[in-house]
Amino acid sequence: MTRELTIKDALNEALRQAMEADDDVVLLGEDIAGGAGRDEAYPEAADAWGGPFGVTQGLLGQFGRDRVMDTPIAETGFVGASIGMAIAGMRPVPEIMYVDFIGTSFDQLLNHAAKLRYLYGGKVSVPMTVRTVTGAGFRAAGEHSQTLYSLYTHIPGLKVVAPATPYDAKGLLLAAIQDSDPVIFMEHKRLYMTTGHVPEEPYTIPLGTASIVRAGDDVTIIGVQKMVHTALEAATELEQQGISCEVIDPRSYSPLDTDTILTSIRRTGHLVVVDESHPRCSLATDISALAAEHAFHDLRGPVRMVTGTHSPVPFSPPLEDLYVPDVPRIVDAVRSTLDQGRKGAEAVAHGR
Amino acid sequence: MTRELTIKDALNEALRQAMEADDDVVLLGEDIAGGAGRDEAYPEAADAWGGPFGVTQGLLGQFGRDRVMDTPIAETGFVGASIGMAIAGMRPVPEIMYVDFIGTSFDQLLNHAAKLRYLYGGKVSVPMTVRTVTGAGFRAAGEHSQTLYSLYTHIPGLKVVAPATPYDAKGLLLAAIQDSDPVIFMEHKRLYMTTGHVPEEPYTIPLGTASIVRAGDDVTIIGVQKMVHTALEAATELEQQGISCEVIDPRSYSPLDTDTILTSIRRTGHLVVVDESHPRCSLATDISALAAEHAFHDLRGPVRMVTGTHSPVPFSPPLEDLYVPDVPRIVDAVRSTLDQGRKGAEAVAHGR
Amino acid sequence: MIEDRDTLLGLWQRMTRIRRFEERASTDKEADLLEGYIHNYSGQEAIATGIITQLRADDWITSTYRNHGHSIARDVPLEAMTGELLGRTTGVCGGKGGSMHAVDQDLGMIGGMGIVAGGMPIAAGAALAARRRGQDRVAVTFFGDGAVHQGAFHESMTFAALFNCPVIFVCENNLYAETTAVDYHLIAGSVIAMAEPYGVHATQVDGMDVFAVRDAAEQLIARARYTGRPALLEAMTYRYGGQYEGDTQTYKPPQEVAQWRARDPLLTFRRRVTEPGLLTHGDLDEVAERSRVEVADAFAAAALAPWPDPSVLLTDVYTEIS
Amino acid sequence: MIEDRDTLLGLWQRMTRIRRFEERASTDKEADLLEGYIHNYSGQEAIATGIITQLRADDWITSTYRNHGHSIARDVPLEAMTGELLGRTTGVCGGKGGSMHAVDQDLGMIGGMGIVAGGMPIAAGAALAARRRGQDRVAVTFFGDGAVHQGAFHESMTFAALFNCPVIFVCENNLYAETTAVDYHLIAGSVIAMAEPYGVHATQVDGMDVFAVRDAAEQLIARARYTGRPALLEAMTYRYGGQYEGDTQTYKPPQEVAQWRARDPLLTFRRRVTEPGLLTHGDLDEVAERSRVEVADAFAAAALAPWPDPSVLLTDVYTEIS
Ligand SMILES: Cc1ncc(C[n+]2csc(CCOP(=O)(O)OP(=O)(O)O)c2C)c(N)n1
Ligand SMILES: Cc1ncc(C[n+]2csc(CCOP(=O)(O)OP(=O)(O)O)c2C)c(N)n1
Ligand SMILES: [Mg+2]
Ligand SMILES: [Mg+2]
Fold this sequence. Notes:
The complex is a heterotetramer, with 2 copies of chain A and 2 copies of chain C.
Chain A: E1 4-6, H1 7-21, E2 25-29, H2 59-63, E3 68-70, H3 75-87, E4 91-96, H4 106-113, H5 116-119, E5 129-134, H6 149-153, E6 159-161, H7 166-178, E7 183-188, E8 195-197, E9 211-214, E10 219-223, H8 227-240, E11 245-249, E12 252-254, H9 258-268, E13 271-275, H10 283-294, E14 304-307, H11 317-323, H12 327-349
Parallel strand pairs in A: 2-3, 2-4, 4-5, 5-7, 6-7, 10-11, 10-13, 13-14
Antiparallel strand pairs in A: 1-8, 6-12, 9-11
Helix pairs in contact in A: 1-7, 3-4, 8-12
Chain C: H1 5-30, H2 45-52, E1 60-64, H3 68-73, H4 78-85, E2 109-113, H5 120-132, E3 139-144, H6 151-162, E4 167-173, E5 176-177, E6 180-181, H7 182-185, E7 201-206, H8 210-227, E8 231-236, H9 254-261, H10 265-274, H11 281-304
Parallel strand pairs in C: 1-2, 1-3, 3-4, 4-8, 7-8
Antiparallel strand pairs in C: 5-6
Helix pairs in contact in C: 1-2, 1-10, 1-11, 2-8, 4-11, 5-6
One magnesium ion binds next to β5 of chain D.
């Protein structure tokens, strides 16, 4: 019998199990328990929130304030402190409430978490997992809707992980916490309530392994986090048009499972990358460029990128809906690379 | 008779002319004049430095401390203040001493400078130019050698400019300062002493126009900032091997002159992008992906990226020299896309 | 607090508009008529009203995600506010910003920053620019008790102090940063204590009393305008609602809410003006009722207002398309 | 300052090693024998020596780009230091870090941060982790007078105070942040004044006197170790050299250099130990000469040491290649 959980609950279970297994796992963040300063006077306060999405709810009761640390609004302070804790033998899991706020602790990740091992000759590891929340579609406007995957992926020394299913969420989070390197773990706010099978016992999914979420022959669609689901919907629609799509979820953006991705592209000959982030210097361009370099001779049509626009995420619902890639845009992209592939082939046949 | 200046002096002249033309242009940064707090007691102190590379030297004498503001080491403070100054009618030019330090003011650029116009319905402009210093090859190790072009380029609302010649340095800096939007102006520390012709009178180069620095037919090489020069050297060597290279300097990464780049690629059928930044989600992948989407049918060989490695920049000279793309790597990349192009064509001819 | 009748009615009008607006936003959010986050300003009306009515039209303001009160006190038309909450073309930002960013740059409101403490250095810079350009404009930057822990607070205070920026840092100390109580997070004991190392003049005031706020603001604004020096005002207040609508607020002791509601800024105002006979209950009720109607009309109008055209998704990213 | 002979000789040895090392690095840089930036620690020897000799082997340290003194005081072998400056395999970081990052993580030195104030929160975290794991290890984070303006200073002090981190913030106030004089940038007048809002115990000390530093450090370290509370030490000192080698230093009044040199930490030490007859000039000269030879040998050895293998360019980016 399958056990169904939401991503939110899968993550909560992963955190709980990681904390049960290892006393050195501690959580830090703003209101990740909630009610700090009211515990004595008003016991219901404790665990008031569990973060704005409730992911860390209930952990305070089990582990106490020493291990579920509600911090002041000072990301440089507590992300930086997490680095020190990691070096000193713990496995801190700080939370940046929304990825939009990365600017307030960016230096600690860019120059310290990512580089301490390398610069100092490999004598130290920084086993920390920075949890953060990504994504548009929540009517949360320009400063609470970004994805920014590529900013972290560009930085050597960081690992970047972003699950799209409850099963992956649990397995990847446990793997991230056990990993010896700093991992940015990105949770999409519009996926928290997505349900799926999750085994109760702890398990890990190796970082750097992609998941083929749907097998197909005519085109490879890479979905970035929430876009995996949109890509799957598009694939269903395309099937009705007689087009067989392979949908891949990289799950881990750094390291990236280039083998799985390239193998698929070489077989299908067509690539569409769907990424809700902004288009420039993005994961979409990263994976497109991978194909253009390493699967060039197998590509039979232009690589298509379906992305958010080069604009902040607007609040207004109809505008935001235009911002986020949707099924019709993916269907168009797939059809256009397939059509142009044929055209291209005809052009070659006609000696143009 | 041509007037030769270094990039450093061209930038200094641009700043001086911008400040002469418009009282609202002010400079802010750490030690951009130097000797703050010693002016009275010890007049030689004033203008002691002009920043670590002397770019702003001599400006204090002409414009005074109200317009050449030595700030405390507080990038969020003075970059944020620059945004406010820009909104209030000035044209501030803050300096982030090395681009490696962007983490300490990243939020101000990501969420405020870049988004204030959009989020608030287009009622305001933020005419500021953030000068910063990029680049490896200076033996300055991992925290003073980064380029990080792509982090800014990903962000809608920012413009990103990076000159490679003295002529461009002056013209682009004057254009950036006159521009109504926030511009990140990146100066490569290893190019400051590069000389070239610079007219004395003020002039601007429109942002978003690439420069074809060498015309050629067989392959398009895109050089990113300092790599323009390395690409030119490689082109000279390749010419001796009978290969004609077109070398393009985008100069402005956001907006990007996609027309000039695509026109060239469509003509040559081969693309090599040379970018000293790390490989993932970089300008190299951005331009590769552009070609794979929009010049696919004209590409006759795989797109090659010659980049820095996915590692921090090491200090040790032989290691750093390996990090930075060099002429042999570019030559190899060009030869390999041309060779594989032929192979690919043969493969097609043989029905594989 | 000797104020003329029009001034008094003006204060009351703004406070009642804010309260009615926030109540209506709250019920509409609960009824799922509003999308996105709504941060309720109820309880803090005296601060926005007391300070903003002391500003000149050309002064600068930065606000936060909790900006409705600031915008209404600045006389942003209610329809522009409701339009923004609903994402319509009539919104003060044309619908692009939504509730968290519903401020009017045309009225010198630089932003409703979604990033805690994000507006502070920007306000300092705007204040400095005015001075450098020979204008006597000042800037006010609003923020919460939780914001003082951000590096940006410290860097902005330093910048403002060192470069003589006529900016007033206004902390609305409403006892909570989200769910975190101020007695837990505020090590310094008070926000004014944190101003000391910067040599920034700091005052604490009862943020539930619009007259006290107004007096303090008057002094600090005049001081900033004439000396060019920064100042800090800590206004003690209480957030009646949650961090945002939907917050269950289990962390708030119920007696605390009751205690603070007894000091409600609207009640306090009513008492202070009716007891000495400056205004009658009738005067007040009339204005309050007008505010209610205005708010209802504004919400009704917004619901009928047009959605933005798809083309605007890509406008306003840049000033010039170069 | 009653110290036994070995301790005294140990202090002297470290201080002379540092001085000789920095002098040699300076001349080698001028002669173009060293690549990259070199930040000279001369003049500040008493601080590194006084504090680090009071630490236990298992305590944590974060340093800065100006780290040579800290590393040498921590007994990083001189050949590991010179190897690093020259980018050789024998370097303490295998050549990957260079002068700005020449610290030994195996000795609890977490980093020589190239980012001003970058080490502060990290030190606080390391200190906290020790405590949480039932260890009585403390952390010391070194930084300059200019670093107090970074948001990271403020956020780290807050974090350390709130979570009871046994970390000692050590400000080496050498009167300049690059070319900017402390009397211009330090609005608070002193760094200790900046600790007040955080309730962090703070002391100022003469940073030219290793005994004074040592006494202060002993107290603060013991305090942190036993109470788990943070503390701040401001050590007044002077940077004899420029911000880095090559800085023309025109912003320094010449009489200032002379005044501070008159209070040189080595001279002061010599006086303090020879006057009461604790050590003789001969004792001191012998050690000083040994330091000179050790430094010369270390530079000579580094120049002959092998360059790193190209393959290491890509190692150490990650712990596990997954
Ligand atoms: C840099 C940053 N960190 C975290 C948040 C999430 N956040 C939004 S409001 C808030 C609490 C702010 O409390 P306070 O400053 O007291 O203001 P109030 O909401 O009480 O007006 C937090 C943590 C944010 N917006 N920005
Ligand atoms: C965030 C950041 N901004 C700027 C710099 C450039 N920088 C390096 S050292 C320095 C001065 C630091 O002065 P201080 O803190 O007094 O230390 P000292 O060098 O005197 O030891 C500056 C501005 C930097 N490394 N990091
Ligand atoms: Mg609050
Ligand atoms: Mg200093």
